[in-house]
Amino acid sequence: VFKIVVLVAIVVIIISGCATMSWYGQAIGGQLDLLSRREHIAHLINDPATDPQLRLRLETVLEIRDFAVAKLALPDSGSYTAYADLERDAVVWNVVATPRFSLTTKTWCYPIAGCLSYRGYFNQARANRAVVRLEEQGYDVALGPAVAYSTLGWFADPVLNTMLAWDDAVLAGFIFHELAHEKLFVKGDTAFSEAYARLVEREGVRRWLLERGDESALANWEANRKIGQALTEVLLEARQRLIAHYARERDETEMAVGKAAEFARLRSEIAELAERLGTRRLDHWSQRPLNNAHLAQVATYEDGVDAFAALLGQCGGDITCFHGRAAELAATDLVTRREFLRQSGDQ
After folding, report:
1. What is the mean pLDDT of residues 87-116?
2. Please, what is the average pLDDT of the chain?
3. Which helix (H) or strand (E) segment is 323 a member of?
4. SS3 (DSSP) at 36
5. Crossing angle of helices 305-314/190-212, nearest 10°?
6. What is the distance, to the nearest Å, from the Cα of residue 325 to the centroid of all Cα atoms in its chain?
7. In degrees rounded to 5, what are phi and psi of residue 82?
8. β-strand partners of 108
9. DSSP state, 347?
10. H or E element at residue 92
11. What is the spatial distance between Cα 133 and Cα 245, in angstroms, rounded to a whole number?
12. Which of 129, 93, 116 is nearest to 297 (CA)?
């Protein structure tokens, strides 16, 4: 761990200015703090001093992880064998920024990860200051707390206190998804990697809940997934309308008027969707102020999932066969993988 941290620090010192150094300092410090808080789950379960409720949740984590390895053929790595209490409600706060009349995100580039359309802060006060600076520069900015965190296998990721408030199905889905990334991740091809992990997540949750005999939990998980998908469709439609509006108008006053009208329409549509579905889960979307940055990273992770579902079907549901076929596709070129993902509409 320390060798990697020192290497990153040296690279940053060479190529970066003071502002970037400040961000890297908090990123390195935050990661080290997270790793230093890890405690072996098995030890906590066996410790009489462990809170009984925490013990039950950690036992569920190990059950999920054992299922992932034994029944989903996912890596038996060190991930999710440890627990870390961060003593806060989020692990990082992600900042996303766009120009006032554009859905194109500002990017930040890093020596190892490449260029990303967000910047994460382990400290909320630092994130808030970054938001103020970007708004002063004229950007639309969104700040979102993240309760989960993964290094894609770079480190043995622990389960965090911020994740244990999830219900069992969501917790299982996250662990299956991230272990799938450890199993197979194609650098530079997010669409392929995410569709693969999404299918493993979905199929894993379905099989795990059925093995538990918890059909009511499965029905609830499916209902919540449909709510999320419906919201995504509404957000994507608003995103496309705004892109067309910004491309069509040249006068900034007209763009501002149209922008305000589109966001008012979006809030109304979300409220109508929530009423139709009979849910309060969308209240924070319909009630809070929205801007371009909230829509900039909206994407459907359903794209390509049907193609992987068909691949699993071709394997007769055999998960080991499925992983092997996916690895063969991962070894091909980008054009071949894109063609495979496009098959989703034909299956």
Report:
1. 86
2. 88
3. helix 319-330
4. helix
5. 60
6. 25
7. -125, 160
8. 116
9. -
10. strand 92-98
11. 27
12. 116
CB 186 within 8 A of CB 330: yes
What token pair was written down for 254? 């007209």
d(C-alpha 258, C-alpha 34), whole Å: 44
More confident of the two residues 154 and 66: 66
The rounded distance, in Å, linking the Cα atoms of 144 and 264 is: 21
Distances (CA, A) of 51 to 19, 37, 58, 92, 161: 42, 17, 11, 25, 13
**SS3 of residue 143 by DSSP:** strand
C-alpha to C-alpha distance for 99 and 252, rounded to whole angstroms: 12
Which strands form 140-146's sheet, in the order they lie side by side?
119-121, 92-98, 140-146
The two three-digit tokens of residue 192, written as one number:
């392929």
236 token code pair: 């994507």
| Calpha distance 68→83 (Å, rounded) | 18
Cα 93 to the center of its chain, rounded Å: 13
Q: Whole-angstrom Cα distance, residue 261 to residue 266?
A: 9
Question: What is the C-alpha separation between 145 and 95, in angstroms, rounded?
Answer: 9
Name which of 171, 165, 220 is nearest 67 in CA terms.
171
Backbone dihedral angles phi then psi of residue 88, each to the nearest 5 degrees: -155, 175
In angstroms, rounded to a whole number, what is the distance separating the alpha carbons of residues 150 and 180?
12
Give yes or no for a contact between 72 and 64, defined as CB atoms under 8 angstroms apart.
no
What confidence tens digit (pLDDT) does each residue in 151-179 have? 777 778 899 999 999 999 999 999 999 99
- Strand 159-160 vs strand 82-84: parallel, antiparallel, or unpaired? parallel
The band of 297, judged by pLDDT with boundaries at 50, 70 and 90, is confident
Buried-state track 280-296, b at ≥16 Cβ within 10 A, e below 16: eebeebbeeebbbbbbb
pLDDT, tens only, 23-39? 778 888 888 888 899 99
Tell me the C-alpha distance between 153 and 180, whole Å: 10
Strand residue runs (E) in 168-250: none
> From its phi and psi, is residue 213 left (phi > 0), alpha (psi between -120 and 50) or beta?
left
